[in-house]
Each structure stands twice: as structure tokens, then as C-alpha cells.
Amino acid sequence: MKELSPDEIRSFQQQRGLNITGTIDEVTARALEEARWKLGDRSLYLQETPLMRGDDVATLQSRLTEMGFDCGRVDGIFGLRTESAVKEFQRSAGITQDGKCGPATIIALLRLSRIVSGGLPSVLRESAVQKNRGPALANKVIVLDPAGGENESIVHDVAVRTEGRLLALGASVFLSRGLKNNPSETERIAFTNKSGADLMISLNADTYQNELAHGCSTYFYGADAHGIHSVVGERFANVVQREICARTDLVNCHTHAKSWDLLRLTKAPAVRIDLGYLTNSGDFSRLSRPDFRDVIAEALVIAIQRLYLAAEDDAKTGTLRLSDLRSAGIRR
Question: pTM of this prediction?
């Protein structure tokens, strides 16, 4: 592979939803390796860890999904669910059902995908699962993922305040880390997946070399390179971003699709919220105040509730209060 210039690296990182640095770090190197594989370059199959990853896997998942076979999230990782979808396709196409995407399966896939299209069933499935869970928080499992490091005490306090409110509403809440333990990202993803979470929220406070950088931003799973995104994740990102900015004077830095592993590999809809910049005196002053962190916690809880409310029952951004949930019959 030719050596890439910083501008080419930045362009690639932007296209893949990665942090734009202009340098090849571990995450970018892995994405470059995945990008070199096109469907048909190799046989795809379920193998022991590490699982096969690549754009060819993502293309396979997209083709199967468009035809109505359930691969789950299009994440470019050949796991058990992808193998099951391949077997289902092979059965319907009348070819050997071994779960391996080799030449015969690829030929059948390319031939049939030209004439069969099921729209976006993955979008319908994800939305239906969320809708069928109902409006009450009493049967929801929420994982709060406070960041470690220099912003640990601030975001952990926001997580604890949010946890208390959610518990009062009957939700089951798990914190992925405490003040005395520091699990890796891989461990936190595994913890969230094992918990059977309905939603995962990663809380952070950002830093930047320029102290003028300030404001709140929210991220959800999406990859323009594969033309996919988490429908529920994007909806929650938009709702929580608006709630926080409507209830505080934090600058709205908007929502963004990213393919970070925390968002990509977490099975439940997941978002990362950057609550402000610790390197900005205004943001730091706000986040240092307990009353301000209370407002953030309430915004988070209301946003979670709004995610599960039917459109006709939803309220305008910034107007719903925790006390309103009791009269709506969705608070214990």
C-alpha cells in the first residue's frame, strides 16, 4: 500500500467516521486494513477470535439485509448472526448451507440482489423493537458509561445523579465503571452487551489545545462508507442533544455519525455525549457546579423517556419534567 499524505489520511478518517488527526493511529490502521477488502476478494466465514472484518463483510451484510435476511447491524464483522443469515440465504437460493460466503454464494448473491430488494428491513426491525418495548422505563435496562481520566469526577457525578433518577422511575441501571476501577473499552463493551441493555450512554467532558473550543456534542453509530447508521441511536442523539442545549446555555455543537468501536460494537443503541470542554473556562465553570450537573442529569432522563414515547405523546424539547411522568402513568 502506498504511503498516504496527511491530507489523504484526514479524508479517509472523515469518510470512515473516525477522529480526524491526519496521522495513522491504531484505529485508523485497522480501518485501512478493513477498507482494502472488496466482496469476492476472499471467502468469508465464521472463525475463532479475531473475527473476520472488512468492507467485504459489510457489503455482504448490506446485500443480505436489503433482501430481507437478518444480519443485525451492518458492522463489517462476520459473527454468528451473519453466518446464520448466510445459511438462510443459501437455503433460499438452493445452494450448500455451510454458512460460508465463497464463490457460489457470492455469484448467487450478486445475481439475485439485482432483482430482489426488501428495502431497509433492518431499519424497520430496530424501530419496531424500540416501539414494542413500550413507554414505561420500569422494564428498561440502561448502561451509563462515565469516562475515566482527568474528567472522571465530573462525569461520574453526572452518571450517579442520572442513575438515581432512573432508578426512581423503575429502570434497571448499570454503571460501566466506578471511581476506583478503570475497565478498558473492550471490557465496557462486553459488560454492556452481557447486560442486555436497551440503551448505552457514554458520558465525557472533552479537552482541546485551543481554549476557545466549547459546547456540547453527541455521537451515534454511523458509517457513510457503508451507507448505514443506527436509527434509534441517531434519534436518541438528536433528542438528548436538543434537551441538553434547551435546558442549559451550552453551545450546540450538534450530533455526528461515528464508527468508533464503542458505538459500533455495542449491540444496543449507543451514544457518546461530550458535555463540554474542560479546557474552556466557561464550560469548566458550568460543569463544576452541582446544580448544573443536576440539570444535565434531568435532561438525560427526560431524553431517555422521550425516546420511548409515541410521537403523539411526546412534548416539546425542554418542557417535560420528571413530575410530568407520574401524571402520564409512566412513573411508579
Answer: 0.80
